[in-house]
Structures are given as structure tokens and as C-alpha cells.
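Changelog-linked ticket: cobalt (II) ion example.
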Amino acid sequence: MKTKVGRNDPCPCGSGLKYKKCCALKQQQSTVEPLKDAYLRKYRIRLKEPKDIEGIRRCGKLVVETLKAVEAVIRPGMETEEINAIVHEMTVARGAVPAPLNYRGFPKSVCVSVNEVICHGIPGGRVLREGDIVNVDVTSILKGYYADANKTFFVGAPAPEAEKIVRVAAACLKAGISMVRPGNTVGDIGWAIQDLAESEGCSVVREFVGHGVGFEFHEAPQIPHYGQRGQGIVLAPGMVFTIEPMINLGGKELKVLKDNWTAVTRDGSLSAQFEQTLLVADEGCESLTPYPL
Ligand code: MF3
Ligand code: CO
Ligand code: CO
């Protein structure tokens, strides 16, 4: 005897609709609604509805296209200010707003972080040289929705050290993403990243973490890139957050320069980062800023 109703079977209520379009949907809505309330009250986490997710996904497409446009022009001899100009103009041309500009006093439209700069590098007169690595972190606001992603690029041909740190940082984001599904925890994500980074002899930056995103630039929860399996908040469908591990070739310690933004490795070692905006979906994980890893 068949007892389980398939999602494409006729709904047992007799409506004539498929089960997934009828009572399965109602049941899902009735389980998401109380969860929404509980996550807001307990953790200040704002779960996203389908219309919100579509808005963030559209913004995410723009962010990924912007990263592609930057990648196409990266070359030795260019100033980081040129990257700022490209990101700013492309964002505005699509009817979006660059989120970093004037965010808590940040003076530019994108973060550009070269070599030992961990994150929050301010574009300007620094000239990219053959063998550098450069992270470009783009956050756009489109119709009120935020999406946030970054990549680390090679300038010309990389030395083995540069190749290694970029490879490990990308693998760390991939490992973090592989843990994203309902029922897993925030600690599972951090554990997977830390385990991989340290097994390669690299270190994980602690001072900056992933974050909820979508309605605002930085929302609850925080997503540390280190941690313990099974610890922390349980992931629920409708959560949208970034994973953005900053991985150092040497020690994990950092300092912030006098401009109050630029974070650099204390030992001067190379640092690389990759970031995507992720949705916890019923089936697991969907990247809202997808690019190959
Ligand atoms: N995009 C960064 C992040 O991933 C935040 C940059 S804040 C800024 O969270 F002000 F520097 F833009
Ligand atoms: Co972010
Ligand atoms: Co970012």
C-alpha cells in the first residue's frame, strides 16, 4: 500500500491540484510563519519570503556581472581607483546603489584589498603589480535589496604562495557552502572552514565574520569562519547570509591602519577571501551570487 503522497500526485483533499500546489504548500506556509516569529524574537533574524528572495537574487546577478567586468580589466599597472570607477559606474547604470559608499564613513563604492590587506581596502593610487593578488568586494542595493560577494584575482602570473592562498580561500568558501542546509548549524559552517584552512597550514581571521544580508548590509546572524560542529543557531529555510572566509598564509592576527578601515595581516603575509550570498533552501543551499568555485 502506498502511504506517502508524492509532491506531483493529486492532492488527497480532492481539489484536483497537485499536492505540491495545494496542501503541501499550505502546510509549508503554516510551518514557516511560526518559525519567522521565533527566529525574529530569539535571534533578531529576518527570514526572507519568496518575493524578497527574488529581489536579492536579481541584485546578486548584478553583483556577479560587476565582478566579471572587473576581472576582465585587471592588469598590471592599473590603479585600484580604476576598479572603483568601473564598479561605481556599472552599478549606477543599472539603477542600483553601491552599498559601501558612505557606509559608516567608508569613502568609496567598493573594497579593493591587495596582498597583505585582509579586507576593507580603500581604492586609490596604489598600482597593481605583476604577481599581486587583489580582492574586489562588491555590494549593491537594487530596489531596496542587498547582495554581497567578492573574489580574489591574480594580477598577471601568480607565484606559488599566491596560488596557494587563493586556492585555499576558494576551497574554504566551498567547504562552508557545503554545510548549508536546514537542520545544520552556524557552527558546522565555521568548523568546515577552519578545519580545511588549518589542515593546509593557513589561518582564519576572527575579527570579521559572515552576516545576514538582504534587507540591510549587515543583519543577524553573524557567521564566524571558525567554530565547532553542531554549535550555534540551527539553519532554517528562508535564512539569507554571507560566508566570506578571510584566510592568511601566516598568522591570524591583524591590525587596522590609520585610515580606520584597511585591515592588514600583522605579519605581512598574504591574505585571500571569497564571498557569496547564500539562501538556506528547503533542498539545501542556493547561492544568490553564484560563480564557480
Ligand atoms: N562588503 C563587506 C562585507 O563583506 C563590508 C564592507 S563595509 C565597507 O561585509 F564599508 F567597507 F564597505
Ligand atoms: Co559581507
Ligand atoms: Co562583501
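Closing comment: Example verified and attached. The two ends are 45 Å apart (CA to CA). Residues 148, 211, 242, 244, 275 surround cobalt (II) ion (ligand 2) (CB under 6 Å).
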